[in-house]
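Session log. Operator J.P. requested a structure for one protein chain; no other inputs attached. Running the standard single-chain path with token output.
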Amino acid sequence: MIEVLLRPLLEYGYEVTILPKYQQHQIEQQMMKAGRAITGLPWNGMGVAVRGELGWRTMEERSEVAKMKYFQHLRTLPQTRLIKRIFDIRMDDANKQWNAQRVKRSWCHVMRKIMDKYGIAEEWKKEKDERNNVTVNRWWNGNGEEKGVKEKVEKKQEEEWKKEVKEKTKGQYYMKCKKEWGEEEYLNEEGDRKGRVWKARMRASAAPLAAILKSEHGRGKKSSRCMVCGEINEDQKHMLLVCDGYTQERETMMAEIAAVVDPVEWKRLQTSDDLDAWLLSSKEVDTIVKHFLNQAWTIRNFHIPKEP
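Structure written below.
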């Protein structure tokens, strides 16, 4: 629904429009609301995690891609087309301004900055040559023998996303769970629905566990003690692997995992310090972990003191 209804409305005319930052931010906010509704991440969950789980680029990045494709479309139009002639004239003017170091704000100069950002500055030219005189699709995706510009662009976008994640306090744990860029398969309808939401929140450190809440609200204002077993430092690893309050549910989960995972690999994983992150990232045990998380959070919520 988001891809079919909302995004086309928000991105209409993105190829030629140059939106101010505040408008881009407003559009990004609308997409982020939709992304949080899909993933179940709360309002204070990391925005980069929302985009990471869904495999969404920022609206600015999508606008840049649309502009680059449109640039290639204009470049390869026949000279008989009026828009092609206008494009050539504007590119000539932009080149003169650039050489004279008297650059004026225009679509052509915006394209130069975008292409320079993605390391394809050589593409900023109106002339057609043997390599770029192809369809937009072939120029973007390549033809098998020769790579298109898509690879460089997406590599740069992924680098920027990872940099943004690493700058977040909760980013380190998220990167342990997020193995590769793209939409996560666990967001499908397979398995426990509530467990899916809890899995997203656990991966992004957006679950209301005591240790996470303490890190958010500062030292001395919150306790990191587990409300179920009383142990200190209730975090993702504690809930998944340690807490006595979920022993029966955990034993069932581990038995089911042992039945589907290679015995040698499972033995290695059980001694790993990152077993909790593996449980939250493995596609192989996705439905098993979702079911455990739903049970565990049901038990935990029962222990939350009720307000009088």
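Operator note: The two ends are 42 Å apart (CA to CA).
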